C-alpha cells in the first residue's frame, strides 16, 4: 500500500512540482545523490574508487519530453565520459543510461542514435555502458535497442527486473558469453498481469534468475542490498565455480555503504550506482518506496530549512 502510494506520486508531475519547489537540505542530496554537477560526480567517483569500489554513474533525468532535453542528456553523458577519462577514473567507472532520458518515448530511433554516441565515447574512454530498465512498457524496446547496440559494442549491459514474470526467459536469452546483466528486483509500480506482487514471489524469482545467470557464460551483476541475496550469490558463485572477477555486486550510493566496503575487502568487485544532477525527484521517490525508514529522513530534510 505504502509502496504503491509513493510510486503513484513518483509518476505525478504535480507532486513533482510541489516537492522540487520545497526547500530541501543538502542532507538528502549528500546521502543518496553525489551532487548537482559534473564536478560533484567526479569527486565522489574518485573517493569511491579510492576506497576500492567500482562505480556506475547516472545523470539524473527520465521521461524526457522534448528533443532539446534528450540532446542535453546525451551531451552531459559525453562530457561525463570525457571527465572520467581525463581524471583517469576509467575503467573502474562506467555509465548507466536511461533510454527515456534520451527520448525513447517520442523518438526511439533518435534515442538509439544518442545511446550509440554515448557508447562510442565510452569506448574511447576505455569503459562500458549499462542500460537501466524502466517500466514494463519499455522493456521490449530497451532490449531491442540493446541487441542492436551490442552488434557494435558487445560490452553494453542491461538491467533486468526480477519482479517481471518475463525476466526468467529474458535471463535465459541473455545469459550467453560476453553478456553483462544487472539483475535487480525492480523499482516501478507494475500490474499483476506482468509482475509478481508479493515480496516473497519477487525474491523467489530473483533467485531463479540469478541461478540462470550464474550458470550461464555471461557476467552477472547482482544489484541488491538484500543480505539474503548477497549470501545466496556468494553461495552460487562457489557452486558454479565463478571467481571474484567473474561476477560483481552492485549497490546504490548511500545504501549500506559499510556492506559495500566489507564485500570489496573480501575481494569482490562492488560497483556503486552514483546518481548526480538536479532531476532527482523520480529517483528519490523510488528509494522512499523501497524503504519507509527513508521517508522520515526525507521529511526531516524538507523541514530543515
Ligand atoms: P529490498 O528493497 O527488497 O530489501 C531487502 C532487504 O535489503 C531489506 O529487508 C534490508 O535488509 C536490506 N535493505 C534494503 N535497503 C536497505 C537500506 N536502505 N538500508 C539497509 N538495508 C537495506 N530498478 C529498476 O527498476 N531498474 C534499474 O535499472 C535499476 N537499477 C539498479 C541499479 C543498482 C546498482 C541497484 C542496487 C538497484 C537498481 N534498481 C533498479 C533498484 C532495484 O530494482 C530495487 O528497487 C532496489 O535495489 C531495492 O531492492 P533490494 O534488492 O535492494 O532490496
From TrEMBL:
Give the pathway. Answer: Amino-acid degradation; L-proline degradation into L-glutamate; L-glutamate from L-proline: step 1/2
Question: Locate the Proline dehydrogenase domain: which residues?
Answer: 47-298
Q: Which InterPro entries match?
A: FAD-linked_oxidoreductase-like, PRODH_bac_arc, Proline_DH_dom, Proline_oxidase
Instruction: Write down the required cofactor(s).
Output: FAD
Keyword annotations: FAD, Flavoprotein, Nucleotide-binding, Oxidoreductase, Proline metabolism
Q: Which Pfam families match?
A: Pro_dh
EC number(s) per entry: 1.5.5.2
Query: SUPFAM superfamilies annotated for this entry?
Result: FAD-linked oxidoreductase
Write down the chemical reaction(s) this protein catalyses: L-proline + a quinone = (S)-1-pyrroline-5-carboxylate + a quinol + H(+)
PANTHER family associated with the record:
PROLINE DEHYDROGENASE 1, MITOCHONDRIAL, PROLINE OXIDASE
- Please identify the protein, giving its name as recorded: proline dehydrogenase
Question: In which organism is this protein found?
Answer: Planosporangium thailandense
Amino acid at each position: 500500500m505504502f509502496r504503491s502510494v509513493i510510486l503513484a506520486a513518483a509518476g505525478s508531475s504535480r507532486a513533482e512540482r510541489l516537492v522540487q519547489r520545497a526547500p530541501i537540505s543538502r542532507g538528502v542530496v549528500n546521502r543518496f545523490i553525489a551532487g548537482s554537477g559534473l564536478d560533484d560526480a567526479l569527486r565522489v567517483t574518485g573517493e569511491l574508487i579510492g576506497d576500492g569500489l567500482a562505480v556506475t554513474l547516472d545523470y539524473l533525468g527520465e521521461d524526457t519530453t522534448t528533443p532539446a532535453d534528450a540532446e542535453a542528456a546525451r551531451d552531459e553523458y559525453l562530457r561525463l565520459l570525457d571527465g572520467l577519462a581525463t581524471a583517469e577514473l576509467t575503467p573502474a567507472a562506467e555509465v548507466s543510461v536511461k533510454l527515456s532520458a534520451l527520448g525513447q518515448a517520442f523518438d526511439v530511433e533518435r534515442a538509439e542514435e544518442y545511446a550509440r554516441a554515448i557508447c562510442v565515447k565510452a569506448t574511447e574512454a576505455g569503459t562500458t555502458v549499462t542500460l537501466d530498465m524502466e517500466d514494463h512498457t519499455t522493456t521490449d524496446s530497451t532490449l531491442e535497442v540493446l541487441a542492436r547496440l551490442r552488434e557494435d559494442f558487445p560490452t553494453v549491459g542491461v538491467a533486468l527486473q526480477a519482479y517481471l514474470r518475463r525476466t526468467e526467459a529474458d535471463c535465459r536469452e541473455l545469459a550467453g558469453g560476453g553478456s553483462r546483466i544487472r539483475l535487480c528486483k525492480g523499482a516501478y509500480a507494475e500490474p499483476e498481469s506482468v509482475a509478481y506482487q508479493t515480496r516473497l514471489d519477487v525474491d523467489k524469482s530473483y533467485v531463479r534468475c540469478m541461478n540462470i545467470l550464474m550458470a550461464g557464460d555471461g557476467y552477472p551483476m547482482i544489484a541488491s542490498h538484500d543480505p539474503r541475496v548477497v549470501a545466496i550469490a556468494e553461495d552460487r558463485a562457489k557452486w558454479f565455480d565463478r571467481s571474484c572477477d567473474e561476477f560483481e555486486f552492485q549497490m546504490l550510493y548511500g545504501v549500506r555503504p559499510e556492506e559495500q566496503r566489507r564485500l570489496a575487502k573480501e575481494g569482490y568487485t562492488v560497483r556503486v550506482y552514483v546518481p548526480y544532477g538536479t532531476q532527482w525527484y523520480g529517483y528519490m521517490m523510488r528509494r522512499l518506496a523501497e524503504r519507509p525508514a527513508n521517508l522520515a529522513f526525507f521529511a526531516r530534510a524538507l523541514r530543515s530549512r
